[in-house]
């Protein structure tokens, strides 16, 4: 099928003028200020309006949003899609709002895991498609009523083999492009990096550090190498960011992560998952009861769990995987998806042509 870049529909005329940006900012500020609040709430509002992030929003995010709104308008008006299916609710939201106004069917697919805000926010879509009943139950009620569990398998699940033939474990890096997205404290990150290296050396195991595909690979790789050198850590480390993550995991004794969408791959491949109980993350309180993760309470326990995993003494979660990753027949998934996006106007046109 032909691939189209949305930005091919961009024109200089779509870029918002300074006047239109200031007008939009004034409209938002007026709307925020007109809401009646008590004294305590008014103080919070004043702090929010004066906050650095709010200034960043008006200076950068608002102009981007205005441009993307015009871009989505241009694309929809020219292409006239019969349906809009998105895998994210970020910049795609501008198109979703326009499609909703034009009565174009919209579907939001579950991309990786659902963010914790899905418990409280319903998005401008006709239907949600989630990967398991757990995720459907996680949605707020109004969204849940429009959600369907459809998850055609990408490949077969693999049984966890309890042997000593798994030569390494995988640590999913806490680094992220330009910022420490998942931890603001370098001491926290460094202590984890040192702990996993010590566990690998003590167990004579290989260590794979997996970066996010959008990470600053070389910069963070050099940072880790320097950290290990300063602390006298001598250990061959394999740095990964391009390999298929499922291929990487199939030969791993365990996956060590803060929180990552990769936990679903570990679940389907029966790979034990080790994480940090002292850190909070989305879904933690919902997932903990299913024993999907081994929660290390401190760095000593983190090293202990890694050692057990290398010895194949950790077992994968006993939970029914279908709760998180249902298995929908591909034919059924196609038929159901077609029903969700089949525009009544298209059907009328097809009938008239026949």
Task: Give your account of this protein's structure.
26% of the residues are buried. α3 crosses α4. Strands 7-6-5-8-9-10 form a six-stranded parallel beta sheet, with helices on both faces. The protein has a four-stranded parallel beta sheet with strand order 1-2-3-4. The protein is of the alpha/beta class and 354 residues long. It is built from 14 helices and ten strands. The longest helix is centred in the N-terminal third of the chain and has 28 residues. α7 links the parallel β5 and β6. The protein has three domains: 80 residues, no CATH class; 98 residues, no CATH class; 153 residues, 3-Layer(aba) Sandwich (Rossmann fold). Helices cover 45% and strands 11% of the residues.
Quick rundown:
The protein has 354 residues and is an alpha/beta fold. It is built from 14 helices and ten strands.
Percentage of residues in DSSP E strands: 5-15%
Taken in chain order, the helices and strands follow as HHHEHEEHHEEHEHEHEHEHEHHH
How many domains? The number is 3
The radius of gyration is 24 Å
Distance between the termini: 25 Å
Shape field: globular
Number of strands: 10
User: Major sheet, described briefly?
Assistant: 6 strands, parallel
How is the largest sheet built, in terms of strand order?
Answer: 7-6-5-8-9-10
Poorly predicted spans: 157-164, 177-183
């Amino acid at each position: 099928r032909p691939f189209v870049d949305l930005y091919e529909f961009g024109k200089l005329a779509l870029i918002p003028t300074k006047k239109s940006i200031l007008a939009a900012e004034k409209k938002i500020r007026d709307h925020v200020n007109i809401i009646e609040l008590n004294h305590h709430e008014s103080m919070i509002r004043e702090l929010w309006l004066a906050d650095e992030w709010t200034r960043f929003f008006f200076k950068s995010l608002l102009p981007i949003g205005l441009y993307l709104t015009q871009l989505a308008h241009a694309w929809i008006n020219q292409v006239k899609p019969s349906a809009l299916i998105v895998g994210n609710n970020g910049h795609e939201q501008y198109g979703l709002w326009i499609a909703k106004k034009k009565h174009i069917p919209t579907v939001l697919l579950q991309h990786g895991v659902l963010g914790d805000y899905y418990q409280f926010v319903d998005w401008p879509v006709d239907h949600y498609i989630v990967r398991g009943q757990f995720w459907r139950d996680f949605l707020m009620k109004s969204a849940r009523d429009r959600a369907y569990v459809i998850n055609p398998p990408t490949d077969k699940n693999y049984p966890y083999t309890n042997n000593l033939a798994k030569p390494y474990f995988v640590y999913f890096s806490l680094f992220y492009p330009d910022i420490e997205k998942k931890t603001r404290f370098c001491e926290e990150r460094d202590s984890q990096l040192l702990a996993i290296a010590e566990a690998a050396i003590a167990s004579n195991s290989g260590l794979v550090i997996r970066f996010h595909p959008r990470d600053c690979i070389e910069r963070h790789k050099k940072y880790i190498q320097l950290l290990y050198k300063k602390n006298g850590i001598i250990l061959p480390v394999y740095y990964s960011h391009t390999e298929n993550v499922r291929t990487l995991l199939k030969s791993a004794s365990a996956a060590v992560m803060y929180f990552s969408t990769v936990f679903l791959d570990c679940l389907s491949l029966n790979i034990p998952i080790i994480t940090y109980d002292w850190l909070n993350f989305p879904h933690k309180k919902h997932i903990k009861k299913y024993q999907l993760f081994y929660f290390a309470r401190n760095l000593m326990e983190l090293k202990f769990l890694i050692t057990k995993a290398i010895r194949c003494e950790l077992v994968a979660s006993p939970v029914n995987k279908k709760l998180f990753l249902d298995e929908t027949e591909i034919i059924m998934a196609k038929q159901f998806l077609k029903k969700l996006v089949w525009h009544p106007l298209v059907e009328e046109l097809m009938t008239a042509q026949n």
